[in-house]
Structure formats: C-alpha cells, structure tokens
C-alpha cells in the first residue's frame, strides 16, 4: 500500500481547489475487497446504496483547471542540442574530370576499353545509400551485398533539426544553422558550431566555403559587421577580435596547439584558456576574413585517397566581442561573448583511405580526438538521462575537448552539423556517424549565460556532480581502423 502511494504524484495548484492524483504506472486490476459492511458501489443494483450520500466528484472543474507545469518539465532555461545533417553531392564536378586523366586512362587501356566507356561504367555503378525522407529524416540503406551477407537492415534516422540534401546551397545552411548563433552572439551570448563527419564529406566546405559559395564563417562575419555598422549596435561601444588556431599531432608525438594568425607559434592550454593566443582586433568583415584566410593557408592539410586537400588538424576560430570604454563607461548590454566555429578533422578508416606512415599517425590522432569528442557528448547525455550516473570526465583526454569543456558539459549553447557522403561506398562511414550522433539530439543545453562569458576564467565546479576522477584512458594506442566520429 505504501509503495502504491509513493507511485502517485500529487500536484497542488493554487488555482485548483482539488488535489489531482496522477498515476505513473498503469493501473493494476484491483483485488476484490473483502466483504465488509460498507456498501458496494460497483454492484449498486444488488444493494440499497443511495448515490445521493456520496459527495459529487467534480471532474468537470478539475479538467478545466490550469495545472502549473512542474519545474522539470519547463524548458525555460534549457533547450535541445540542434543537430543538422548535410549530404554532400555524390559527384563533385571538378573531380569527375580529373578521374578521366592520368592513371585512369592507363587503367582503362589495360582493360582494353576506352576511358570514356570505363567512366560510364563507373558512374552507372554508383548508387546512393542515403535518401532524404523529409526535412527532418533520412533513410540509410546498406548496399545489396551487405544486405545479403550480413543481414544489415535499412534504418531511418529521424528528428534532425533539418536535413540538407545534396543540392542545398550554403545560404540555406547559413540561414538555418548559423544565423541563430550569430544573432545570439550579437545579443551577447556565446555559442559554438562544430562540423563533424567522415573525411571528404564537406566539413571544411560548409565552414569556410569557396569564393563562389561562401561558407558559415565569412557569412557570419558579414552579418556581424553589417549589423554593427547599421542599426543593431554602436561601433563606438564594441570591439571585435578574431583568433584562429589548430590542434595537431606531428607524427603522433602528442598534441600541440599552433596559433595560425601569427607565425605558427606553439601554445599551451591552461584550464580552457590558451596562453599567448593572439587575438587580432578587426574593424570590418574584410579584415576579419583576411586574418582567417591567412591562417587557413598555414593549416595542416595533405592529399589522401579520400580527399585531395584533407584537413590533418582540428581548426578553431573565435570571434570575440568586447565592450569599449566610452566616456569612461562600459556598455551595459551583456558582452564579451565568443562565437566559436570548429572544423574537426574527418575520421578515417584505415582500410578505406589506405593511409600509411605520417598520414596513418595523423589518422590515429584525428580518430582519437573524434572519439573523445563523441564520448563527452554521450556521457553528457547519459548523465542528463540519469543524474545518479557519474559524469565521466572524458574531456580530459584531448586538448580539443579540454578547450571546449563548457560546451561539452552543456553549459553553453552548441550546434552540430553532421556532413556525410551519400554513395554506396560511404555506407559504413555514414552508418557509424548517424548511429553515434543521432542520440545527441536529446542533449539539453543551458540557455542562461554565465555572468562572465569567458567562463574559462571562472569555473563553477559546484554545478556539476562531484565524481571521482576516472582513470586516464590510454588513447594513444588506438588503431586507426577503429573509427568514432
Ligand atoms: N556541398 C558541397 N557542394 C559542393 N562541393 C562540396 C560540397 N561538400 C564538399 N564539397 C567538395 O568536396 C571536397 C571535400 O570536401 P571537404 O574538404 O570540405 O571535406 P572535409 O569533410 O573537410 O574533409 P577532411 O575531413 O578530410 O578535411 C572538396 O573539394 C569540396 O569542395
């Protein structure tokens, strides 16, 4: 009996004079009451029970009452992590021409067919494994051989904030993904966009774009400075600073941070702050883009079998707004917000890329970081689902996650854009990424900004459950073939 009482939740509303009992568990069939002198209501026909004696149950009034929402169900101070999916076009035009050249011509001749016929054969063969169902869901179908041999099933992934098909334009992506973060940033809130996905799936293209199709970073800068020079804020009261750096592991010898805005200075991380990182004061979008473009020229990239210009490092860009002293007063609006954009290096499967030597060592580092990033988000989700579960401090295992700690602990708003290739050959990469990242949509983020936006300067450890320090995992020896995006 006591237990049954515990299973019931009671809400007492000031507007509602009655107590409402909500049963959490489905009602059990009641046991037959032992015979007493009390009249049996259910079998009233067989008794002389007069219904007038029973106080009337005011069901109509109760239904009309407005129940106050319980604290846990209101999402005033939190919102779900927004996870977007972008599908890259199957064939990139500039590559298709390249394929007819050089080695391919020789290969076709060996087969005794013309290169054009060979190309036709190849394009015919190319099937897609990922199709868009609607703006929020996709269907992933394994190639026929896998369906027959391994009984792999077709899966539907639903609930994305938006799915961008292979014909999507950068502007569409910006409007849905980046613009809300930029608007918040202008209003004084920090935020982060992280692009993740397998190698060659279009992360760098989405983040930076090309001169004809500008990516998220240049579009964000244009909006920030247009807004500043027009109506939103006064130029006199704000200054903008840009910094760009990469985290890279040279030949697998530990992670290092390089400042890309100066001459590749080697930096160190101290409690989520990068000591000595140069912030360049910029007064317009052109200046800011120039700083980033110069930095990108220094970024570690290399040619691999999957991408002619594959990123070999994690690249982070920060745009920071700071209040100016104006007539001895500081602007009163919340300020010092940071907009962070992260272009992760794409996870690689050794079997597919065929990487060797330096490239293979880089793959180990890239896959490790992606794995730790994923573990942080999974741990956050599990902790939010069940607060009794220990919050694992996976962020300690890589420089990137240590730097992004506030985001990975759900204290600041973050948006994820997953990029994938839709080809049959890409099935495994796409499947691993979607399986891993689909649950992240349930992660909640705090929408309340900490008093100082530079939260790394002041850490509120008491907000987190106290957990024992987990043993550091040996991540260095991870096989490059173990992919975790
Ligand atoms: N949506 C797109 N439209 C047109 N071209 C694209 C698109 N996405 C990617 N590409 C092209 O595909 C190629 C690979 O893209 P990109 O370098 O951005 O991949 P990545 O995910 O950053 O790879 P990595 O992790 O290896 O650096 C580039 O030539 C890029 O221009």
UniProtKB/TrEMBL annotation:
SMART domains in the record: KISc (SM00129)
Molecular function terms from GO: ATP binding; ATP hydrolysis activity; microtubule binding; microtubule motor activity
One GO BP: microtubule-based movement
Keywords: ATP-binding, Microtubule, Motor protein, Nucleotide-binding
Domain annotation Kinesin motor: ranges: 80-443
Region (Disordered): 1-52
Pfam family, one: Kinesin
Source superkingdom: Eukaryota
UniProt-listed Gene3D superfamilies: Kinesin motor domain
Family membership noted in the UniProt record: Belongs to the TRAFAC class myosin-kinesin ATPase superfamily. Kinesin family.
Protein name in UniProt: Kinesin
Organism of origin: Macleaya cordata (Five-seeded plume-poppy)
């Amino acid at each position: 009996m006591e237990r049954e009482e515990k299973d019931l939740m009671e809400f007492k509303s000031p507007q509602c004079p009655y107590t409402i009992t909500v049963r959490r568990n489905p009602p059990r069939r009641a046991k037959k009451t032992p015979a007493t002198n009390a009249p049996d209501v259910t079998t009233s026909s067989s008794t002389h029970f007069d219904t007038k004696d029973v106080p009337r149950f005011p069901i109509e009034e109760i239904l009309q009452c407005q129940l106050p929402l319980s604290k846990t169900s209101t999402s005033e101070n939190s919102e779900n992590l927004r996870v977007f999916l972008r599908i890259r076009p199957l064939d990139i035009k500039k590559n298709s021409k390249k394929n007819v050249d050089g080695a391919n011509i020789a290969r076709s001749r060996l087969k005794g067919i013309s290169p054009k016929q060979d190309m036709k054969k190849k394009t015919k063969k190319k099937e897609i494994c990922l199709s868009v169902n609607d703006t929020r869901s996709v269907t992933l179908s394994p190639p026929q051989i896998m369906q027959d041999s391994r009984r792999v099933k077709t899966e539907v992934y639903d609930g994305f904030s938006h799915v961008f098909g292979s014909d999507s334009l950068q502007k569409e992506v910006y409007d849905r993904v980046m613009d809300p973060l930029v608007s918040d940033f202008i209003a004084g809130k920090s935020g982060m966009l992280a692009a993740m996905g397998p190698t060659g799936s279009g992360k760098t293209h989405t983040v930076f774009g090309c001169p004809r199709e500008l990516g998220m970073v240049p579009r964000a800068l244009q909006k920030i400075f247009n807004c500043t020079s027009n109506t939103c804020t006064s130029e006199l009261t704000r200054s903008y600073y840009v910094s760009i750096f990469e985290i890279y592991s040279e030949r697998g010898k530990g992670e290092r941070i390089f400042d890309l805005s100066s001459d590749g200075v080697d930096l160190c991380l101290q409690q989520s702050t990068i000591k000595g990182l140069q912030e360049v004061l910029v007064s317009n979008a052109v200046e800011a883009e120039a700083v980033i473009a110069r930095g990108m020229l220094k970024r570690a990239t290399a040619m691999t079998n999957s991408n002619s210009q594959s990123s070999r490092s994690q690249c982070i860009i920060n745009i920071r707004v700071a209040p100016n002293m104006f007539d001895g007063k500081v602007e009163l609006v919340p300020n010092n917000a940071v907009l962070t954009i992260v272009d992760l290096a794409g996870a690689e499967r050794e079997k597919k890329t065929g990487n060797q030597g330096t490239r293979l060592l880089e793959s180990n580092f890239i896959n490790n970081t992606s794995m730790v990033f994923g573990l942080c988000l999974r741990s956050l989700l599990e902790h939010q689902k069940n607060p009794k579960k220990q919050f694992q401090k996976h962020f300690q295992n890589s420089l990137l996650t240590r730097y992004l700690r506030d985001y990975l602990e759900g204290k600041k708003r973050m948006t994820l854009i997953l990029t994938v290739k839709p080809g049959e050959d890409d099935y495994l990469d796409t499947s691993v990424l979607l399986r891993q990242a689909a649950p992240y949509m349930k992660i909640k983020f705090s929408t309340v900004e900490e008093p100082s936006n530079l939260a790394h300067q002041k850490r509120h450890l008491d907000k987190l459950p106290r957990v024992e320090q987990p043993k550091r995992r040996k991540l260095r020896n991870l096989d490059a073939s173990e992919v975790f995006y």
